[in-house]
């Protein structure tokens, strides 16, 4: 018997991810970062509750949070971006931003499962598509880019071009839906 995610699992995963992403970004942009973080924690908790192997998924989620902390700290320290609801420590990204990474990790073994083996595509996706999420976040008021904006987008793209393949490898290793 397979524990692979069924259609209902995928739909719930996509809805929970989108709700958490929107709550985090819009919350931060409007001074309600904590509310977004609560939604993110609930989305992650729901994910772990329905996963056949929550321990494996928890490892992936923690790894994604650590990877996000490292990447976002480097990007923030570079001066290419600034964020709404800052942490108060110059090099430390806000908690709402770090929470986006484990929330994203909840989708890798469920909604994004068919793409987990596409390592080369993940590099290009990270490089070219991931920065679009940051542009959307900036347009919603959660962050801003220093000028020229292309420098910040390039840093974000490079970070994701490296991080996304790493997350895919970890997701295959810690597949809570196997």
Short description:
With 178 residues, the protein is mostly helical.
What does this protein structure show overall?
The chain is mainly α. It has helices at 7-29, 33-50, 54-77, 95-108, 119-139, 149-173; strands at 81-83, 143-145. Helix 2 (33-50) runs antiparallel to helix 3, helix 3 (54-77) packs across helix 4 (95-108) and helix 5 (119-139) packs across helix 6. The relative contact order is 0.19.
Notable characteristics:
178 residues, mainly alpha, two-stranded antiparallel ribbon, 2 strands
Reading side by side through the largest sheet, how are the strands ordered? 1-2
Estimate percent helicity: over 70%
Strand residues, percent: under 5%
The rounded distance between the terminal residues' Cα atoms is 10 Å
**Stretches with pLDDT under 50, minimum 5 residues:** none
Count of helical regions: 6
Shape estimate:
globular
Computed CA radius of gyration, to the nearest angstrom = 16 Å
- Overall pLDDT: 93
């Amino acid at each position: 018997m397979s524990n692979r995610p069924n259609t209902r699992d995928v739909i719930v995963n996509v809805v929970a991810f989108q709700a958490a992403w929107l709550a985090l970004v819009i919350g931060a942009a409007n001074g309600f970062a904590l509310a977004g973080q609560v939604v993110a924690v609930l989305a992650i908790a729901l994910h772990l509750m329905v996963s056949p192997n929550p321990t494996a998924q928890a490892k992936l989620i923690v790894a994604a949070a650590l990877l996000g902390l490292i990447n976002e700290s480097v990007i923030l320290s570079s001066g290419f971006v600034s964020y709404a609801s800052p942490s108060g420590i110059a090099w430390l990204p806000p908690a709402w931003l770090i929470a986006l990474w484990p929330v994203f990790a909840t989708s890798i073994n469920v909604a994004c499962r068919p793409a987990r083996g596409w390592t080369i595509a993940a590099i290009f996706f990270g490089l070219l598509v991931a920065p679009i999420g940051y542009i959307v976040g900036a347009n919603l008021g959660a962050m801003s880019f220093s000028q020229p904006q292309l420098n910040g987008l390039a840093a974000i793209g490079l970070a994701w071009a490296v991080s996304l393949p790493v997350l895919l490898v970890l997701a295959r290793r810690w597949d809570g839906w196997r």
